[in-house]
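note to self: dont lose this again. the chain is below, predicted strucutre after it. 332 aa total, dont forget to put it in the shared folder this time
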Amino acid sequence: MGAIDTEETQIVAEAEKALADIRIVREEVSKVIYGQESVVENVLLAILSGGHALLVGVPGLAKTKLVATLGTVLGLDGNRIQFTPDLMPSDILGSEVLEEREAGRRAFRFIKGPVFAQLLMADEINRASPRTQSALLQSMQEYAVTIAGQHYDLPRPFHVLATQNPLEQEGTYPLPEAQLDRFLLQVNVDYPDIASERRILLETTGAEEATASPVLSAARLMEIQTLIRKMPVSESVLEAILALVRAARPGEGHADTDRDVAWGPGPRAGQSLMLTARARALYQGRLAPSVDDVRALAGPVLQHRMALTFAARAEGKTVTDVIAAIAQRDFN
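---
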């Protein structure tokens, strides 16, 4: 019993220290990003959980600025890729060049691409071709790339924060389902409220513009990520996650889902909920997640891992509406 009590005391102490660090991170980000509290929270949850996030919204909503600010505040070495239709996989991963060395010998040397960073900003990711989008698949899942048969590990931690324009815009390509599933969360970025927009106008058009300062180091961020994986999850929260994910799949005995959902989330969605629910609890100053955390994260975790049937789309239903109905049906 003594060893268990000591371990619990240590986790509590680590959690309190981590909470203080997270609070300072939030304060620094708020100096630059006005409003959008839920967007900032969800992107931070993805990073604290050790995963990647997809930010979806029209241009001009400070998505790119948010990613750059987080890189500074979290102490991460970052790179930015502007995705365009002519972007090639080698522009992301790197390529081999033939060099002439001593005694006239020639050999290939690998030049690393921008993916070799701790925080990769993939800007307007859906403006590149599916072939180039898929170049990120291995790096997002395995934290490594393979070039000409050689295996190269990426820096740790490694996070991809991608921005995406709505698919209705010109010159966009839908992301492959396999790549969408690699994103821990999809974060929808909406227009700011009037108070936030007023502050944006005043604060960003003067002689000086606010900047954020570094708060964490990469090593400290990884310590917090490890702590989150140690946080206990109750049986009720585990059952809620299983119930939610399985209820979003057709063929599980739910007539509404069978009618509205063409294909549903896989086990990776449950893993994402387990991690982000823990991170949300810590973010809000709690030591264990609750069913409310699962409900709050249902949309960001599931919406990019599901597709609606033609009949549901014809009725004007959205994935968000369907997920909200499923969460309410199973948890209330």
